[in-house]
Batch of 3 targets.
Target 1
Amino acid sequence: MEVINALGRRKAAIARVYISDGKGNISINNRDVKEYFPFRQLQYIVNQPLEITNTIGKYDIKVNLQGGGVKGQAEALRLAIARGLVKIDPETKNVLKTNKFLTRDPREVERKKPGRPKARKRFQFSKR
């Protein structure tokens, strides 16, 4: 199998994934997944598409992650891995889609407007 690449985004995070046959190693920015995401919850988010498709230990995954916070990065990586698995085996698309791993979360931070302290908050109104 040649190397399959996929892209995932969430908030300001971008994950580029390169999937190849291997022993199940996941390296993020040349670091192990357990070192990059020390919290179990984030590791669980990253491994969800692999667990559902029963492909843990089948593929080596090399990831370039940038931007955003740790939660956004983990969710961007989950989307990228799910998209890569669909490229490898199109039959997994149904399972991943029903678990909403192929849906890109469109929510972004709203920009700050001029003349206001935040995006929607206004300064206190004074009648006199």
Target 2
Amino acid sequence: MASYTPPKASIWFKIPVADMDAAQRFYGAVLQNELTHEETGPNPIAMFAAQDRMASGHLYPGKPAPAGTGPTVHLAVAAPIEDGLKRVADNGGQVVSPVIDIPSGRFAYCLDPDGNSFGLFVPAVAA
């Protein structure tokens, strides 16, 4: 059997949302990241800004899984992480864990207004 080790484990991610405009405002405010509306594929999307677009992701019109049951994507946020967690709560999301310290950085689990699970992450070099 052949073995394949990709340069990155994930290529991009998609987050299903019920209201594209509201979700774009939520994630833009929380991440301090301007999402770009695009209609180049089968669905309208809102792309997260990133230096490497192939490691980025987007929002799309869809049906979120029941609150906290789908995959959890961890999103980069500027340090300190506590400021990002405050923006989650201030913009209608929910912080569902304390900040967790690991060797590579700090993260916390959250839910967006649609109930999608996500984490905010600050790398150790930026923490």
Target 3
Amino acid sequence: MEESRNAVVLTCLLIYFALCVGVGIWALRRTKSSQDFFMAGRELGIIVTAFALFSSTLSGFGFVGGPGLVYSQGMTSVWMIVCGTVASCFTFFLVAKRLRIFSEVYQTVSLPDTVALRYQSEVTRFLTAVAIILGVVGYLAAQIMAMAVVLQEILNNVDGMPHVSLGASMAISVAVLVFYCVTGGIIAGVYTDVVQGAVMAVAGVLVVIAAVNAVDGGLAGGAMTLVNDDPEAIGPWGTLGIMGALSYYLLFVVGACGQPHIVTKLMMNKKIRQFKQIFLVSAIAGVLAALLWIAIGFAMRALVVAGDHPELGQPDDAAYAFLQAYAHPILAGIVFAALFAAIMSTADGFLNIGAAAIIHDIPKALFGKPLKKELFWARTATLALAVGAALFVSLSGSSGFRVERE
């Protein structure tokens, strides 16, 4: 199977793409109004809401940048995960219940909708919508480039496969993303998140096992190797020290409560009293997925220090190097599918809130009413946003942009 490793990885990825398309077709029948498209009819259960939240939070960073930071900073990076868990507590206990009650009472379908009603100001609606659109274009462009670079790397390493350009890889990735987002809106997005979240959580557990087996002496041996090389890296605060570790608190705890693609999903669950269970499920799944982040970073550092693996060109190569050299081909395929899942989960959330800002909030702010045939225009705006972001990244001279920066 080692000889066909890249073919196995590609097969796992194609299965994931097929699941995304299938969910889009299924969700098409359930999306009958703009409220379905943007809010999933406010009918989501505990599992779906929980996985939608944690999948959107992790993004591609947790699978590429995260292991790279552990590789270079040691325990400092792990504090991101701790602060991320605290951030979830803040979001759920300070924002979730109030936002959900407000959205049900006033039947809001977007975050700017809620802000405008809360402050009785159409100016706040307009400014919130514009801020979301500006953030969506840049962040979505980065996610699209991440998908394209990863897919190109996989395709061009399969024996017998003709060379695939970055543009072609981008077109394939965007086509899959756009299909399920346009056909099923946020319903397709959140139910795809269930698959994405499950893949990420399973991948996290399996990678820990692979990492322990890859390092000489297992967990204890790897720890001793790292201690002998740099005691600070394996210490409680890592190489950046206590202030570097605690600085993540402001970034991740305070900042997380205002992420629009995440807090918008707090308006979609069926029952308000379910938030405690949603938080618990989301936190557990997130921790399991984060195991991949920690395990790969420390395992690759131990392998390099012990001389069992060449020095990495850059820290963010850690995940790819580990999967290619030490993971079973099927596990590598699952993790690469999880990487795409993480990226797409964030991208579909941004597409949805961006479309809402364009066709619902800005028209209401300027003309006092939404557009007619809002569902049609929601799908059109989703397509336009995705294509626009792809063109933006293609024309910006970012072809050298590395997926590891995601």
